[in-house]
Amino acid sequence: MMDVVVDGLRKRYGATVALDGLSLEFPGGRLSGFLGPNGAGKTTTFRILLGLSRPDAGTARIGDMSIDHDLARIVKRVGAIVDEPGLLRPLTGRQNLVVAAHTLGFGHERIEALAEFVELSDDLDRPVSGYSKGMRQRLALAAALLGNPDVLLLDEPLDGLDPAGQHSFKERLRRLVDDERKTVVISSHNLSDVQALADHVVVIAQGTLRYQGPLPDLLGGAREMRVTVDRPTEAFEVLRAAGLETRLDDSVLCVNAEDGSVVSRTLAEAGIYPSALVPANQSLEQVFLELTSG
């Protein structure tokens, strides 16, 4: 498991300060939500981590790899969706993945398995120009996973997806963390998505850190988690068997647990993936506005 550590990053674009001595950490093997208002510096941070932009000061590392000295290694160990996915729309989905594997230098043998993972096997030989937004996002995720990376940096991966597409995409992200122990970082403007998904949260504003830590701590240390799954009765039995105090409330599971990752991992081991896992007290939106106002 690889953690991601940013230390004192500064970046200026003309008169605009994008990052102002930013330091933060995304823990390895967790799904972290990366939050901030427009212009807070989230995309700039991602671009620096990927070597697409150079900081004016400060440094960062991914695992034992420094962005100052190990970018060639980082490219092979980190998958990313930043800005609009760079897909070649006249080509088919398969051809896009082949091009991505050629660029990476490996990963060709994973194309079929990844197409199945993102549920695009039946559409892989269609031109991407005929794909929906959700299909393009899923193809971009497959491309990001070609090299079997340890870390995924996803900038607004749920943007524009319909509710069904969001549900399946979130389920896949949780599987990558719970089953494969990958480090996943998602930035999103949709706070309810992050509240349903994330184990860990980092909040920035005006290029500086405002909060980092476990989501339940941010929301006031709630011990009860509200969990939504497709098979609530089966999930109820799984959680009770694992020793977690659980009750059913109108098909929503209420679980006495400080850490949502324990709940999601227990369910994942039984092949059950939550569509929502939320602390049962105040909303992330309330806390976010308090942290970033002014």
Folded structure, characterized:
The protein has 294 residues and is α/β, with parallel strands linked by helices. The protein has a single domain (4-221), classed as Rossmann fold. 35% of the residues lie in helices and 27% in strands. The protein is built from 11 helices and 14 strands. The strands form 3 sheets. A 6-stranded mixed sheet has the order 6-7-8-3-9-10, sandwiched between helices. The chain has a 4-stranded antiparallel sheet with strand order 2-1-4-5, with helices on one face. Strands 12-13-11-14 form a 4-stranded antiparallel sheet. Strand 12 and strand 13 form a beta hairpin. The longest helix has 16 residues, at 163-178. The chain starts with a strand and ends with a helix. 42% of the residues are buried.
Short description:
This protein has helices at residues 42-49, 71-77, 93-104, 111-117, 133-144, 163-178, 191-197, 215-218, 232-241, 260-269, 284-292, and strands at 4-13, 16-26, 31-35, 57-62, 65-66, 78-81, 151-155, 183-187, 200-205, 208-214, 224-228, 246-249, 252-256, 276-279.
